[in-house]
Amino acid sequence: MKNLMITGYKSNELNIFNMNDKRIFFIKEAIRKRLIPLVEDEGIEWVLISGQSGTELWAGEVVLELKEHYEIKLAVITPFLNQEQVWKEEQQSLYQTVVGQADFYQSLVKKEYEGPYQFKRKDRWFLEKSDACLLLYDEEQEGSPKFFLREAEKQDSHFPIFFIQSFDLEEIVREIQENSSDFTYDS
Questions:
Q1: What's residue 6's pLDDT?
Q2: 84 within some domain
Q3: How far apart are CA 14 and CA 139, in angstroms?
Q4: How many C-beta neighbours within 10 Å does residue 39 have?
Q5: What is the DSSP string of 31-48?
Q6: Closest CA to 26 of 166, 179, 181, 178
Q7: Transmembrane region positions (predicted)?
Q8: 1, 39 in Cβ contact below 8 A?
Q9: 186 in a structural domain
Q10: Residue 37 is part of which domain span?
Q11: How far apart are CA 43 and CA 41, in angstroms?
Q12: For the chain, how many structural domains are there in total?
């Protein structure tokens, strides 16, 4: 395995509307916890994201942090130009930071948003170019990741999907609370 895509819920699907929301910390820790063994044991060299708000940008931040200790690269392949233009300013700022530090950046379509077909095309491209996926998704809480999952299930070949689900996030919270006596989390 060389190329891993990471995707999942958008921030609004998780009811996260503030970049200071404490839940982001736990999501990033869950991504880090799943990503490090994939880099160390499976040889992941590239992490691919489409730069969507939420899971993908947080994963981008994690990869940029891990680059200090691992030979790993980040590619941001957007479905269309200027996807961030309708986002809040702080989301746009995070997007620009991640894109600016990525090892590779490109848009699949050299046009702005035209329709949902661009997201379908993005999903197919990522499935073709990736060896596996790390997906923040829980079937009990549907959201936009279900469209990618449906497309992945159509694949003839074996395409590993590593899930981060709600119980994984709960485990991260427990671990951090147990290992830090002064840590408190107010949901």
A1: 98
A2: yes
A3: 14
A4: 19
A5: HHHHHHHHHHHH---EEE
A6: 166
A7: none
A8: no
A9: no
A10: 3-179
A11: 6
A12: 1
The C-alpha angle with vertex 28 and arms to 5 and 34, in degrees rounded to 5, equals 55
CATH number at residue 79: 3.40.50.450
CA-atom Rg of the chain in angstroms: 16
85 is written with which tokens? 């233009």
In this predicted model, what pLDDT tens digit does every residue of 42-89 receive, in sequence order? 999 999 999 999 999 999 999 999 999 999 999 999 999 999 999 999
Distance from CA of residue 118 to its chain's centroid?
A: 18
Which stretches of 4-116 are DSSP H helices? 22-42, 55-66, 89-101
Q: Please give the model's pTM, rounded to 2 decimal places.
A: 0.93
Place of tokens 């992945």: 152
- 9's tokens: 């819920």
How many Å apart are CA 1 and CA 47, to the nearest integer? 11
6 with 55: CB under 8 angstroms? yes
In a domain, 184, yes or no: no
Residue 187 lies in a domain: no
